[in-house]
Amino acid sequence: MTITKEQIEQAHERIKPFIRQTPVLTCSTIDALAGASLFFKCENFQKIGAFKIRGGMNAVLTLPQAKLANGIATHSSGNHAQAIAFAARQTGTKAYIVMPNNSPRVKVNAVKGYGAEITFCEPNQQAREAALQEIVDRTGAEFIHPYNDERVITGQATCAKELLEEIPQLDILIAPVGGGGLLSGTALSTYYFSPHSIVYAGEPEGAADAVLSINSGKIEPAPYINTIADGLLTKLGDKTFPIIHEHVKDVLTVSDEEIIAALCLVYERMKVVVEPSAVVPLAALLKNKELFAGKRVGIIFSGGNVDLSKLSGWFNAA
């Protein structure tokens, strides 16, 4: 697989009418704690509340009309589901979304709000894929994978492209990693648009497959799954892993306690709403300050779709 600089530039132009160019925020208090200059790319302010609209929109806009006619389909616990539902509405087609029955309520409600047809399944990969295959067989809808798709990766790469254009001369970029769509896109944009910069990833200890995969050189499963960062539960794919393995310097893991501490810090000091997955890179940076000391660091806040009913439980545990 080869995603070119030109393809990322073309994807950016293609999706611009449908997305926001999200702001880059700073916080002197967090800079002082980190011992570095941090620049937060706030995809929590993106349409649908997450970066996923970039990849989903790019994938849908590249489909020929004949394929769009039968609708589009995916499986997702939330943010990609919203992206596909939104993209379907924008292009006048039908969206079929398979969601685990434990998906965050805020994300389920948003998918319904965009007019998609939801099929709930048991919260495991086998159930997701089986339910999706039945829908594709029945409807002829085009499956758009949440992350393991070149069209999606190319769209996600536009986030770091925007950040690097607005804040040049970054020493380091750090993004969260689940399935690797955002991270692989970030790594590619950094390689093409700021080749002197280094890319790190933040990953929850409770879904730590990427760090094992980077170290072993092949895709590994997480030893266990248990984290509040519900957007990062998936494992790397065969399209995202090679990019990450080649272009990402390291994957830094953090505990749920460290994620909650970073979440509190952002809420209290920056006054912005982010979801737990979004602060994993900041938690990783604060845990490994020596790697970032004195550097200019771009951090991608991946989304802000928070299940508000869980906030008191998280913060009481802090």
From TrEMBL:
GO terms for biological process: D-serine biosynthetic process. Residues 16-303 form the Tryptophan synthase beta chain-like PALP domain. Pfam families: PALP. GO terms for molecular function: ATP binding; L-serine ammonia-lyase activity; magnesium ion binding; pyridoxal phosphate binding; serine racemase activity; threonine racemase activity. It comes from the Bacteria. Its cofactor is pyridoxal 5'-phosphate. The keyword Zinc does not apply. SUPFAM superfamilies: Tryptophan synthase beta subunit-like PLP-dependent enzymes (SSF53686). Keywords: Lyase, Pyridoxal phosphate. Belongs to the serine/threonine dehydratase family. This is Pyridoxal-phosphate dependent enzyme. It comes from Lacibacter luteus.
